Amino acid sequence: MKAIRIHAYGGPEQMQFEDAPVPECRAGDVLVRVVAASINPIDWKLRSGAMAKGIPKSFPFVLGQDGAGVVEAVGSDVQGFAIGDEVFFYAEFARGGSYAQFVAVDAAQVAKKPRTVTFATAAALPTPGQAAWTALIETARLERGMRVLIHGAAGALGTIAVQLAKQQGAHVVATASGEGMALVASLGADEVIDYRQQRFESVARGLDVVLDTIGGATQEASWSTLRPGGLLVATAIPPAPDRAAAAGVRAAFVFTPPRGAVLAQLAERVDRGLRVIVGREFALSDAAAAHRLGESGRAHGKMVLHVTAPAAN
Questions:
Q1: What are the pLDDT digits (tens) for 133-166?
Q2: What are phi and psi of 58, to 5 degrees?
Q3: Cis preceding linkage at 60, omega within 30
Q4: With CB atoms 3.0 to 4.6 Å apart as the test, which of 121, 168, 202, 231 could cross-link to 142 if both were Cys?
Q5: Alpha-carbon torsion angle 200, 254, 65, 304, nearest 10
Q6: pLDDT in tens, 193-233
Q7: Separation between Cα atoms, residue 94 and residue 107, nearest integer Å
Q8: Whole-angstrom distance, CA of residue 41 vs CA of residue 157
Q9: Which residues have C-beta within 8 Å of that of residue 28, sequence separation ≥ 6?
Q10: How far are the Cα atoms of 123, 266, 270, 302 from residue 40, in angstroms, in the given order?
């Protein structure tokens, strides 16, 4: 099979489009022929070596965690999937990656693809969708009438978070800028703050929940927007242990493990109208160019790699 592998940590020039062995389908796995894979910031962090201590890898390895495709083989212990099923997944970091024509994925990390969207759109959902679900549905337990501030609302995680929050009946305040403001408003945000023109902490007050996808100065300024006992949920940088207590609120940091059961629920919501925003699309062989664009900060929307044709050749 063809795959994007790296043989040493470094820049995008380390990404080699080359032949690689088809991964073994173990007893608990499904082997997926990947139609599309999406790119997450952690992909270039893994490639560069920035995550080498936390997520050690053996060279060469295939990049990528998110993808969508067609089941080619099913492990002996697997139930609920059959050859030919259209699926999508967020695979664990320790296994082979999704920038490849085939990937073996633990069946517990796979779900049936949403019926109403393309493989490319489905591939863009797993990591940001599960992060938004973990933060808002499971951690914050968002309910009707609650007020939530979502930072980075025009990003991959933020666009899903805005929609999930509205589906839960929350009042959504969102930060964005430029073209992202109209996008976020179209997804249902009740208030959109242009963070380049206005200090959000001077406008947003008495919030039940803040979803912090940025960290740093944004996180620090967010404490004052919460009501007493409110909750800041961070997905990028863990809050300082004593900072929440000093502000009279609560804090949580979420790291999202891959779970097919959550993907299945997200798929149902996609088929009922949840929008997944796809930006630039690339051929698998052009993955290095996609990484360069992503690291430049000029990518708008989720980047997706086209790997194989939807129908088997």
A1: 999 999 999 999 999 999 999 999 999 999 999 9
A2: -105, 135
A3: yes
A4: 168
A5: -20
A6: 999 999 999 999 999 999 999 999 999 999 999 999 999 99
A7: 15
A8: 12
A9: 75, 77, 78, 106, 107, 108
A10: 11, 18, 20, 8
CB 13 within 8 A of CB 291: no
Positive or negative CA dihedral for 147, 263, 293, 235? positive
User: Nearest 10 degrees: CA dihedral of 76, 28, 31, 285?
Assistant: -160
User: How far apart, in Å, are the Cα atoms of 312 and each of 32, 83, 223?
Assistant: 12, 12, 52
Q: What is the CATH number of domain 128-253?
A: 3.40.50.720
pLDDT tens per residue across span 18-73: 999 999 999 999 999 999 999 999 999 999 999 999 888 899 999 999 999 999 99
Cα 70 from Cα 36, distance rounded (Å) = 10
Domain-by-domain residue ranges, the chain? Answer: 2-125+276-306, 128-253
